[in-house]
Write a structure and sequence with these properties.
Blueprint (H helix, E strand, L loop, with lengths): L13 H12 L12 E7 L2 E6 L4 E2 L4 E3 L3 H7 L2 H4 L12 E12 L11 E3 L17 E5 L1 H4 L2 H10 L6 E9 L10 E3 L8 H17 L8 E12 L5 H16 L3 E3 L9 H4 L2
Parallel strand pairs: 4-11
Antiparallel strand pairs: 1-2, 2-3, 5-8, 5-10, 6-7, 7-8, 9-10
C-alpha cells in the first residue's frame, strides 16, 4: 500500500473488519462479546479488570484499546490516570463529519471530470460559527472514478450489468459547525419533504455550483453522522505518544497497548502496518 493513493475493497472497507471477525470466530480460544459496553478499566494484581455496563467482569492478561483516546481516559481507574503520560490521551481535539453518499443517474463523464475528487479551500474570512451560515462542505470524492470496481458489484446485485450511474461522497463538518442530523438515514427511510432530504437537495445545489453544471436529481442518497471521529493531532503529538509507549512498556511490559486514530494517525493507511 506504500505506493497506492487510493485503496478499497470491492464491497467496501468493511470487508477488512468482516474478514478479521470471521477469522477470529474460527479460533477455538477466542470469544467475541457483542453489545458489551465497558464502564471501567482497572488493574487487580497482575491482570486487568474490565467492568461491563451489565455488571459482568472480564479479567484479561493483556489489553489492547482501539477506543477514541478521550473515551479510554474516562474509563481508566485513578491508578492509571495518576501516571502523567495518560493525560496525553485527552489533549487532541476532535472533529465530527457527516458523510453523504449520493448516486446520480448517468455515466460519470456526464456528472464530473475524471479524477479522485476535490477539496474545498478554507474560507478567506475564516470558518463560520453556526451551522446556518453554510453547508460546511470539506470536499467530494468521485467514487465511480476512484473505486469503479465497486460499481460493477452493485450493477450485478441489481441485475442490471449495464447500469449507468455515478456515485459521489460528500464530506461535511470538520472545522465547520455540523448541523444536527439523524445518525444514519437514507432516501429509502424518509419522505422527500423530510429535513434530511432537503439537506441533500442543498448539497446537490452546492455541487452544481462546484461542478459548473445543473446536476440531475439523485436516485439514492445516504447520510452517516460520525461524531468526534477525526482527532486533530496537535504539535508535539509524536513525542507525547513516544512517552506514553515508554510508560506502558515500563509499567506493563507488552500487556497494555493503545492504538487507533488518536495514536498513529487517521484512517486505515496510518493505523495498519
Amino acid at each position: 500500500m506504500t505506493e497506492a493513493s487510493v485503496f478499497s475493497f470491492r464491497d467496501g472497507l468493511q470487508t477488512l473488519t468482516n474478514s478479521l471477525e470471521e477469522y477470529l470466530r474460527r479460533q477455538s480460544h477466542v470469544e467475541i462479546l457483542r453489545d458489551s459496553t465497558v464502564s471501567s478499566i482497572a488493574r487487580d494484581g497482575g491482570d486487568f479488570t474490565i467492568t461491563l455496563a451489565n455488571g459482568a467482569f472480564v479479567a484479561p492478561s493483556h489489553l489492547i484499546s482501539a477506543l477514541p483516546t478521550p473515551q479510554l481516559y474516562q474509563l481508566l481507574a485513578p491508578s492509571f490516570r495518576g501516571l502523567k503520560p495518560f493525560e496525553y490521551l485527552t489533549i487532541n481535539p476532535t472533529s465530527s463529519v457527516h458523510v453523504v453518499n449520493i448516486v446520480f443517474p448517468g455515466n460519470p463523464s456526464t456528472i464530473h471530470p475524471a479524477g479522485f475528487g476535490y477539496l474545498v479551500p478554507r474560507p478567506p474570512q475564516g470558518y463560520p460559527s453556526s451551522p446556518g451560515e453554510g453547508l460546511g462542505i470539506l470536499g467530494t470524492v468521485f467514487d465511480s472514478c476512484s473505486a469503479s470496481a465497486q460499481d460493477i458489484s452493485i450493477a450485478e446485485k441489481t441485475g442490471n450489468v449495464n447500469a449507468e450511474f455515478t456515485k459521489l461522497t460528500v464530506m461535511i463538518g470538520g472545522p465547520y459547525p455540523v448541523p444536527q442530523i439523524q445518525a444514519a438515514v437514507s432516501s429509502s427511510d424518509v419522505k422527500q419533504s423530510s429535513p434530511q432530504a432537503e439537506f441533500v437537495q442543498r448539497i446537490v445545489k452546492q455541487l452544481s455550483t462546484h461542478l459548473s453544471q445543473q446536476l440531475p436529481s439523485p436516485i439514492y442518497w445516504s447520510i452517516h453522522s460520525n461524531v468526534h471521529c477525526i482527532p486533530t493531532l496537535l504539535p508535539g503529538h509524536l513525542e507525547r505518544m513516544s512517552e506514553l509507549r515508554q510508560c506502558l512498556s515500563s509499567k506493563f511490559g507488552d500487556r497494555f497497548q493503545v492504538v487507533g486514530a488518536g495514536v498513529g494517525g487517521v484512517s486505515v493507511g496510518d493505523c495498519v502496518e
